[in-house]
Amino acid sequence: MITPFLLTILIVGFVTAGLTIRFDRFFTILLLLFLFKYSIFDSVNIFLWIIMLGALMILLENKEKLASLPKMMKIQLFVIIPILTLGASFAGSLLFRLNEKVAMLITLGIIAIVYGLRLIFIHFKKHELDYKEPKPAIAKFCAFFGPILSGFAIGFIGTSLKPVKIPFAIRIGKMNAKQVYLGNTVTTFFASSFAIMWHAALNPSFSSEAFYSQLLLGAALWTGIHYTYELTNLVFRNNWRKVFQIVIGMGLLAASLKVFALI
């Protein structure tokens, strides 16, 4: 258990530092499968704790900024998003409960391919991260369907689909990157919290011992990954990131083959 734990926090912490990812650390699910030898279902349940804690940390770090937001923005973030993710995460969690291992692994493998291709081919330019005037129709679409899509995906397979949603919002919708990331962070926090609850409630055989063991491992992994991320960021140069992103994208494509091999 110690060796998989150390390898996971070092690999995920290093990789996510190079990609500047702070909470939706999809790679962890793959390592829980390959290193810890957990089932796809246990891997998702543990991963939910990791992304929930990561999103919570970011929200706490930005609590003063959140408090100063306009009233309508607060309603969107802390009323509408929780309502949308509550129902969507239930639907995803129900599918998680009813699905077979094969379908889950196929879904995970496809997501690994999509995320890998995104890392290889989509690279934001500096001006794209500072858009001020979003396309109104796209912005409204993302505000409503974004939480529903992420809530469902988190309930079903544990990931918010952030690597797919963010490029759509920024490239197609010309939305401000900081606002998009904030909305996705709030969505991830609520959706993962609800999914943890739904996964436990929908599985009559889910024991309290299993619940707390997943909580403890998820919290321990998140702590180790977070500190590895912070330490790696001290030495990781920005001019390395594009090439590093492409390499990791290729790694995800290779990892998808291992996922399919588990079927």
Rg, nearest Å: 18 Å
- The count of β-strands is 0
Order of helices and strands: HHHHHHHHHHH
The share of residues in extended strands comes to under 5%
Fraction of residues in helices?
A: over 70%
Summarize model confidence as the mean pLDDT.
95
Distance between the termini: 24 Å
Which regions contain 5 or more consecutive residues with pLDDT less than 50? Answer: none
Annotation field: number of helices = 11
Shape: globular
Q: Total domains, how many?
A: 1
Biggest sheet overview: none
Going by helix content, strand content and strand pairing, the class is mainly alpha
Q: In brief, what are we looking at here?
A:
This protein has 263 residues and is an all-alpha fold. The chain is built from 11 helices and no strands. 79% of the residues lie in helices and 0% in strands.
Task: Please provide a written account of the structure.
There is one protein chain. By secondary structure, the chain is mainly alpha-helical. The chain has one domain. It is about 80% helix and about 0% strand. The protein is built from eleven helices and no strands. Helix 2 (about 25-35) runs antiparallel to helix 3 (about 40-60), helix 5 (about 70-100) packs parallel to helix 7 (about 135-155) and helix 5 (about 70-100) crosses helix 9. The protein is globular.
List the helices and strands and how they pair.
Layout: H1 2-19, H2 27-34, H3 40-61, H4 63-67, H5 71-98, H6 101-121, H7 136-157, H8 162-172, H9 177-201, H10 208-233, H11 241-261
